[in-house]
């Protein structure tokens, strides 16, 4: 028998293989190249074993057998660039079947089971370093690499059965959870420093700016727009759950602005369901409680524009009212003010530079861009006392004014307000107005040329 440097011996019930002497590389080989052997290692638990299956060219862990690298308290030591577990694989697959170098299939076979996941746990109890992650997934393309479908650095899918899933459970393609310790502290509102967030989205290595120029924040596919659906009827909102509440993310069709619909693709509105709704309450006192505020500055010479514009088009015979802008101010029984209240306010703040042009607090125009009809009544202003309470309407008719001019309007000869002697013939009626709190009357005559 040839001399071998590998010897065996029994020690305390163990069969030990060891090297004796020195010289050539020693080892133990089972089988021959192309003709292997099945080798099975049993554990202490029945049916638990590790098998080298020569016909399948696979190392199989069966029963309760498992692979463990280190243990809690006796972890394996590793250094940067020298991972404990390394897998380098190459696939020449050219079919539509997935080529997967690493595959885990876990079956939950008991009712009320918890888990079933592949878990990566990273722990850090020292300061320093620029990154620390529980799992990093990386998909890299060479200069000739590309796909015709979808590429992703990380893919997470959930596959539900074609059955009623019942109630009480949540199903998500991906779960992101921030677990805070009892004394965890971060600086609020400091995205450049110490901050906490569910997601961090970064763009790095983009030397040509291609992602900045052509990328999307996210891509949502496979959705069908409709009422109560994830994507709304007009594809303007996405339904989200915030706690136990249903909310909607509004998506603008205007870049660098807020646009709902376009001139060729309008948003459909149903009665009683406005596109934009603001319901607010302000409990502050002595300060301006404004739920919607728009500040606009014309900074170029010759500039024109408006702070707010509403365009309402009527293409068919309408109902009993239509308005481009509607302001309603409602007072409850205990509601009142000490100054002035109005349904709509129009103010122009003048300066020493307003030396030309026409300035008015309220502009009312009737526009005739083509041949028009005047309807039953056409006027610059429509004033009416409405409501269903007869007593209240009588009070307004008795005590109300058509026009109120504030105390800033003074008696000025040939000015905006000028007093003069009574003219003849006398008027047949009058409309009362208030100037500085004092009643005055606009005469009404039955002839257009009443001075003759």
Write the layout of secondary structure elements.
Blueprint: E1 6-11, E2 14-19, E3 39-42, E4 49-53, E5 58-62, H1 210-214, E6 237-242, E7 245-250, H2 390-399, E8 403-405, E9 429-435, E10 438-444
Q: Total number of helical segments?
A: 2
State the total count of DSSP E strands: 10
Low-confidence stretches: none
Based on CA atoms alone, the radius of gyration comes out at 41 Å
Helix content: under 10%
- What's the N-to-C terminus distance? 149 Å
Q: Structural class of the helix and strand makeup? A: mainly beta
Mean pLDDT figure: 87
The H-and-E topology, N to C, reads as EEEEEHEEHEEE
Strand order of the largest sheet: 3-4-5
Q: Given the C-alpha coordinates, what overall shape results?
A: elongated
Major sheet, described briefly? 3 strands, antiparallel
- Percent of residues in β-strands: 5-15%
Structure characterization notes:
By secondary structure, the protein is mainly beta. Among the domains are: 224-269, no CATH class; 379-452, no CATH class. It is 3% helix and 12% strand. It contains 2 helices and 10 strands; from the N terminus they run βββββαββαβββ. β1 and β2 (14-19) form a beta hairpin. The longest helix is centred in the C-terminal third of the chain and has 10 residues, at 390-399. It is elongated, with a radius of gyration of 41 Å.
